[in-house]
Amino acid sequence: MNSLTSDKALGVVVNLFATFERKAISYCQWKSNQHLDAGLSGNTDIDLLVQLNDSESCIHILIENNFKKIHNNKKTTIHGIEHWLGFDHDTGKLIHIHLHFEIIIGGRKFKNHKLPIANIFLQNCNIYKGIKIPSPEKELLILILRVTLKADYKTILRALTNKSHHPIDHNSENELRWLLSKYNRYKFHNVIKESKLKIDKTLFDTFINQFENKELSGLTLFCKKIRVLKHLRPHRIVKGVKLYKKIVFSYLIEMKPFSKFLRKEKKKLYSNRTFFAVVGADGAGKTRLAKDLKKWL
Questions:
Q1: Residue % of the chain over a pLDDT of 90
Q2: Domain end among 220, 235, 250
Q3: 145: helix, coil or strand?
Q4: Do 141 and 195 lie in a common domain?
Q5: Are residues 144 and 122 in the same domain?
Q6: CB of 113 within 8 A of CB of 42?
Q7: Mean pLDDT for each 10-residue chunk of the chain (297 residues)?
Q8: 4 and 107 inside one domain
Q9: Domain count of the chain?
Q10: In the listed set 134, 168, 196, which residue is the last one of a domain according to the structure?
Q11: How far apart are CA 14 and CA 4, in angstroms?
Q12: Most C-beta atoms within 10 A of its C-beta, which of 9, 34, 74, 157?
């Protein structure tokens, strides 16, 4: 049995993963593992991929550990992805878990491709501080696809108006460098073949070479996106007219004056109860006040 060894992990997280191990839940932290320590300490989100057959048991464990399900508005809800919020009593920190039962990726506005590779990610996991994570090769495969699909009209405009502009955001760039320092080219090609996504390995190799040599422009990245979209057509969730309507709406909601009328709803807890928060600087007495409120209520 794996046990969590990160000294930064919150108590609620330690208990959660200990229960996963005890109940033999098939899971892994499937992306952004460069920031895993930050996730375990509540400073960023945790992205958990769980075997679909274990979904019911996983949800039961989350509820047992006092996690609360967060409700997305209908327009941004993605089937196969849930959001859960936990509270660590010792530190007062919140922990946000993105719970995935399938691997769904897409552009900046919405995710529209469900990849049939969840089982590949859940098999032969590496162990990092007691947490199951995929190999660097698997994580690199999915990151390149995610970065490529995020290219949009803004990427082209910035490339045309500012030749020095880098088309990849700072966090993704750091994550790519981190994974490239760990991956094995031969193993990477095997992962591409195993995925059966029918995307030629040369697309990935060219991406890596251009990225490492600082030759990856916005136009180049957008052209790669067109090729990737062609190969991923069989894995689209929304198709036809519905797809174009969703794309148009996703851009309208960000534009003025449409944004005033198409206001984007925030996440909400699945409950009719009233919630309030005690906030303040360090040493302001939040813990004492919270205890007094608990006793009073």
A1: 61
A2: 235
A3: helix
A4: yes
A5: no
A6: no
A7: 75 94 96 94 95 97 95 65 92 93 89 94 94 97 96 78 80 97 98 95 97 92 94 89 68 60 59 67 76 66
A8: yes
A9: 2
A10: 134
A11: 6
A12: 9
